[in-house]
Give the backbone structure.
Amino acid sequence: MNDITMKLQADKYIKTALEEDITSEDISTCSVMPEPRAGAVDLIAKQDGVIAGLYVFARVFELLDPASRTEFFVSDGDRVKKGQTLAVVHADIRVLLSGERTALNYLQRMSGIATYTREVAKLLEGSRTTLLDTRKTTPNNRIFEKYAVRMGGGSNHRFNLSDGVMLKDNHIAAAGGVAKAVKMAKEYASFVHRIEVETEDLDMVREAVEAGADIIMLDNMDHETMAEAIKIIDGRAKTECSGNVTKENIAKLADLGVDYISSGALTHSAPILDISMKHLRQED
């Protein structure tokens, strides 16, 4: 997914987030600012990290007031430093106050994912392995979270269930075995879709190879078993390592030489990056 696609889909989700936060009115803001008044506020990093989600941040204010304007001093994917001013938002002060939390929630979450992803990707530098995310994303935030992974230097696995065939343990059980599942997938899916099979032991690896799987996932195997599985596959399929992969253990997997390592932690366990809006002021 690229930034154009993200922008195309973002508005409906941002509007829903705003509606969640403002069901009828912003009572606090209406109390202290009953009339429109032009203002500005600074966006400031409170931690070192990688920024992602600047468009989404600005779009929150634009949806509340099309006249709002954001001056950015950084771009998505940039490293930022604690105390650095990242942007200035110009808008009706009521808009700045009402949109602040929603805008920051997106930016902090996306920047946290980008920062964590950059740290994990750095551990794979010099290897032939591509770092992938998963579908373990926050409901209705997948477009934002997968975009943030890319800004951090990772790559996207399937965006959704329509993107490709992945035969996991329950699909295999439903079909009656690896060979049957792959055969049925080849008969049903378009030729443009590659078929990936999740395997849990060496017998399943052998079955997947013989059935003609395009990608074989080595799921929750120990290091020795994965090394043996790669020998069995012997280049006849792409290989993916998966299962509880985190920043703490991914370096131990780099020497395997798998094509891909997928990590749900990129999206489900990344802490937010602390960012704040400060120095609200009136403008003429």
Notes: The longest strand covers residues 38-45.
